[in-house]
Amino acid sequence: MRIFFLGLLSILFCVACSEQHNHKGKTPLVELDGNFLYREDLQSALPARLSKDDSLLFAEHYIRNWVEDILLYEKAQSNIPDNGEIEKLVENYRKALIMHTYQQALIHQRLSNEISERELTEYYEKNKDLFKLERPLVQGLFIKVPLTAPELNNVRRWYKTPTQDAVEHLEKYSLQNAVKYEYFYDKWVPMSDVLDLIPLKVPEVEDYVNKNRHIELKDTAFYYFLNVAELRSVGEQEPYEFARPKVKDMVLNLKQVEFMKAVKDDLYQRAVKRDKIKYN
Question: What's the domain of life for this entry (predicted)?
Fold first, then answer.
């Protein structure tokens, strides 16, 4: 039978099940060979904001998949006479999962995520070969203005000059006239992100930008001004400030490995002292 599902505009199949089974407060919807699909489980899987028809369709597919999985599992069990290897794999996975969960809890409780800047820079300097660019980076400035914008000659002069005075003029100008303004003299950004802002169509983009640090383009509506003050190519050293998140992850991972090594060693030494390890 189809029923409305928890006040949502959805209709489900309802199958009667034994009242003597302990459902632990859950509401059974479907029973198959002593296996139960509960309304709460279906509710948590149901995507939000579905229409009545879509909710019904989702519920029907969900129930059908649940039934098919139960039937396939039962068929598989009856056709695998020796499942000792599977039980061993399951037990190994269970052990690994329990150990992983415990390790993460220990790390969260006892190991601080705070790492000093000195530790990060020292690791970066000692392991520079790990931080080579896989995509070009640039520093600079970009401004996009309508073709009808005023003072274009000043804009042409300001965007090429990274002085404080020129930048201040351009920032004030951009508040009233720019469609988009990006200042990145002080940080490295992927070249691809910057080039997405301009209608540049050339075969060797990186080579072109390297040779043409001041780029002015226009289309039917806008002028595009890009000043590339610095450029680092693929294979060059990744700047520390750009690599810093990766450096921090690496250092934190090393700390976690060392911490867990110490935990395991402590457990081992305690077991030895208590004579718990028996060699036959």
Answer: Bacteria
